[in-house]
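cache lookup: miss for this entity combination. No prior model stored, computing from scratch. Input as submitted by user K.M.:
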Amino acid sequence: MIKAILVFNNHGKPRLLKFYTHYTEEEQQHIVRETFQLLSKRDDNVCNFLEGGTLIGGSDYKLIYRHYATLYFVFCVDSSESELGILDLIQVFVETLDRRFENVCELDLIFHVEKVHHILNELVMGGMVLETNMNEILLRMNEQNDIERREGGMSAASAVTAVKNMNIPQHLKDLKLPDLPSIRNFKNPF
Amino acid sequence: MIRKDLQSSNLYDNGLALTGLACFTTHDLARDLVNDVVNLLSSTRPYVRKKAVLVLYKIFLKYPESLRPTFQRLKDKLEDPDPGVQSAAVNVICELARKNPRNYLSLAPVFFKLMNTSSNNWMLIKIIKLFGSLVPLEAKLGKKLLEPLTNLINSTSAMSLLYECINTVIAVLISISSESPADFTASIQLCVQKLGVLIEDSDQNLKYLGLLAMGKILQTHPKAVQAHKDIVLRCLDDKDESIRLRALDLLYGMVSRKNIMEIVKKLMQHVDAAEGSFYRDELLSRIIDICSYNNYHYITNFEWYISVLVEMTKVEGSKHGIKIAEQIQDVTVRVKSVRHFSVSQMSLLVENAHLLLSGNSAQRNNISEVLLAAAWICGEYSE
């Protein structure tokens, strides 16, 4: 089972965090910091598997990561997952992002977080791998985007027509202001 | 609201609801919605069936009472025409079996059939891993698996599958190691040979995995790994810390009377150069383990060993003060000839106690253990 998926940049700033078991905010931040510390020390031509973290680690868990230019993609998995298989999965994830955003870069992840989450949801669900074929994932994403566009189009259009139909000057004239209380009835406080 | 989405005819509504459920389901939600999810198992769209199967796992976690009635439906999905759904079902059953392998032993024949008919690597890997955890419970299963696994090892080109097959074969061999080993030398040789290829590969990942698997063989068939002694010793010098850690595991099988001093010297050099305290502690405990293995079987020169132990005491930040102390005491008590030397070394330590104790409190605790032993030895054996 996959316990968590983290994406952060070379300075340790998280770009995508997905935890499949419950952790508090503070624990999550701690995990990101610790993982970054462990990974930043590693050279680029060492192996992609790490053990030895304390919080998210433990005897059964491994960190499997890939470093692409400015981003680290880290999957924290237990011993039921195949290490080389997960490496392939990270590759599929990144390639899917690349196809979706056309030459993906870090800014895409920052400005389109919800799209990245959608793609990730098609790939991994509840900590288990859902789909490993990139084309299948892209097909699903495109279909969902079409639906979104159609629905979004409809509601945007109806909002515009509703605003046009509002006759604002008439409304202002019809506005009935409440009566001011009569001063005579006030007792003199002094 | 969630029910409305689950019952919608739009597959993406279903998909979204299921994904959401996987993230936030609770005991009550699971109880109320399990029937809707089970209905979706028979949806006409494989996309929805796949997701429904995976969500079932989360529901089982939160609402365990639902496992028994829905299990039959889950088993049916193993024979679903869509390979994605099959794969998801295998995934869920593997996760369940990890917690409680005995309950799922009865499914072994179904998985066996799947293993022989499927070509989906992910699914094969999961099934083979599952067999790896079932094998200790049922010896006959292991023997039946050896042949198909060996075939897979010889035929597959996917490294991930190859590695998992080797792992499971090792698990089989460990579980039947009590019986006559001669029958299985061919399998052992095959595994060791393939692992040797992995370790020599320039890809660090393969090297790591090869060492990891070889470490497992070592426990039951130490002689089998002797052939690769040189490569493993070379891995000790690798600049990748993970690889060095794994090579350390294999040291037990590689050490002999002739090379122990050289190996320990190399390891002490690593201790000096080591950056992380985790690695350093591992190194120290390994050195002690190898040296004390089998009643100090490999040590010919005990004076050398005492001086190594003294050097280890001076290493900063170590957590093994007690172990070192025990070792020094043990050796001094049992080996009469070395007592004189030991006393002289210990008295040096005690004289310089103030220097040693200048570190922080954690260090002081460790060093004080050794000083305790040192003082005792001086008291007992000095003349």
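stored under new cache key. Chain B touches chain A through 43 residues (CB under 8 Å).
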